[in-house]
Amino acid sequence: MLNLHVRPTLARVVDPVAAGLLRTGVTPDAVTVAGTVGVVLGALVFFPRGMFFTGTAIVFFCVLTDLLDGTMARRLGRTSRFGAWLDSTCDRVADAAVFSGLVLWFTGDGENRLLSGVALFCLVSGSIISYAKARAEGLGMTCDVGLAERAERLIVVLLGTLLAGLGLEVALDVALWLLAAASAVTVVQRLVEVRRQAALTP
Question: Containing domain of residue 51, as a range?
């Protein structure tokens, strides 16, 4: 999982920023909401227009708030169930915005019905991946397995949009197809894992 390797590196940058925001009175929940609004605007305003470089820069910057709000909450020493719920819900909103922006592009000026379907599949399968984990945990099981968790999905799609914004348009096509395949595999992996754990429960 990329989370295990990327987060410690980014923490060296995020920690001082989190401390500074806390000193100004900004709350973790406010950062969560602001970051989500930024992702939605970046994805839904720029991606449908084919302005992939600008959109990716905005989305990437705002996605980093997913690390920032958690760091702020830990520094305050008061993580809450509402904060955890808000963070997860906003993650789903942000993911939906990114892929919806791509669907709008491919059904509009991008004129590619097949890739609009692939982008839509990535959106839906990503929601299923997240729901499968949440539902398993609600039933007392774990479901952390999978080839493409949220961090991996975002890195792949944003790398594709970034390269497309730099003129390598085929990179977005490749990224979406790879992501669709990886997401399908992940759904199956989580199905198998939950079935395995359920079979062990008397």
Answer: 2-200
Q: How far apart are CA 130 and CA 85, in angstroms?
A: 13
Q: Tell me, letter by letter, the H, E, C secondary structure of 83-122.
A: HHHHHHHHHHHHHHHHHHHHHHHHHCCCCCHHHHHHHHHH
Rounded distance between C-alpha atoms, residue 74 and residue 55, angstroms: 30
Question: Is the predicted pLDDT of residue 23 greater than 80, yes or no?
Answer: yes
The DSSP call for residue 47 is: G
Q: How far apart are CA 25 and CA 34, in angstroms?
A: 15
Split into its structural domains, the chain has a count of 1
Q: What is the CATH number of the domain that holds 115?
A: 1.20.120.1760
The C-alpha atoms of residue 178 and residue 180 are separated, in whole angstroms, by 5
- Catalytic pick from 91, 95, 144, 173? 91
- pLDDT, position 70: 78
91 in catalytic set? yes
The DSSP call for residue 49 is G
d(CA 126, CA 153): 8
pTM above 0.70, yes or no: yes
- Using the 8-state DSSP alphabet, how is residue 147 labeled? S
